[in-house]
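Lab meeting, item 3. Inverse folding demo.
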């Protein structure tokens, strides 16, 4: 049943992603509404799938690459719908849903078997630390999409070739505001995730920090977003520079998530 639900959610996300991409080139309000509707259906099924998995494994399903990629995608869609409700930007799905689909597609190729938790993971810190980390990273993922929208809109303005897409994209000021809000949401969540991770590490291994590759790259990511906030508040870096740093930060997150787990030996690597 869980497999069917997951595959069904993946199918809905795939359909929504295709429609959203077509929407960039020749779309309108109807196609944007269709994208939102299909994504909503996929998200509902995806939520049921995660709940089903939770019941099966007995804990938050984030302890394998299959589960983690799926939950990461779910968190991104959650924030996407919050922004859609707040700002009503139909075209936003064209820049966010491809990320969601890639994560879900990645999840689909990883092993799905249920394994018992290792002793170190049998802790109350597991849902606290991981939920903070995933939600913070999801905010940064959406900020990456918004940053891409900003760069595209700025390109249209500078080239003075104002097409239909330009008219459907929000103003640079609105995009910059959303980008900043997402980072101010993601940064404290990431900070709390690192702090709770350190507390968990001390209780599990007797040390707050072990310079593990996952810890190092999480710290690098933290510094990138700390830089984004610092230069914005002190040097007035807004707009294009902030958008570029948002994209660079998310690339660091992707390496932390996939690269460390698949390429490097880490205490945090999934089995």
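The presenter then showed the designed sequence:
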């Amino acid at each position: 049943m869980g497999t069917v639900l997951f595959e069904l959610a993946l199918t809905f996300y795939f359909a929504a992603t295709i429609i959203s991409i077509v929407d960039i080139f020749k779309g309108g309000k109807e196609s944007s509404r269709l994208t939102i509707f299909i994504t909503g259906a996929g998200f509902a099924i995806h939520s049921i799938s995660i709940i089903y998995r939770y019941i099966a494994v007995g804990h938050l399903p984030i302890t394998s690459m299959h589960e983690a990629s799926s939950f990461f995608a779910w968190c991104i869609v959650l924030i996407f719908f919050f922004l859609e409700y707040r700002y009503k930007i139909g075209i936003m799905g064209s820049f966010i849903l491809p990320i969601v689909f890639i994560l879900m597609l990645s999840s689909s190729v990883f092993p799905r078997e249920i394994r018992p938790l290792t002793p170190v993971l049998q802790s109350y810190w597991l849902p606290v630390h991981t939920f903070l980390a995933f939600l913070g990273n999801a905010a940064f993922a959406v900020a990456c999409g918004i940053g891409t929208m900003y760069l595209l809109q700025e390109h249209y303005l500078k080239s003075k070739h104002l097409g239909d897409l330009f008219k459907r994209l929000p103003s640079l000021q609105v995009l910059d505001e959303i980008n900043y809000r997402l980072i101010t949401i993601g940064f404290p969540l990431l900070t709390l995730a690192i702090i709770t991770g350190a507390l968990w590490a001390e209780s599990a291994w007797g040390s707050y920090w072990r310079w593990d590759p996952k810890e190092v790259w999480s710290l690098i990511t933290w510094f990138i977003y700390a830089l984004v906030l610092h230069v914005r508040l002190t040097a007035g870096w807004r707009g294009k520079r902030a958008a570029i740093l948002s994209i660079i930060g998310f690339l660091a997150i992707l390496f932390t998530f996939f690269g460390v787990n698949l390429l490097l030996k880490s205490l945090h690597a999934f089995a």
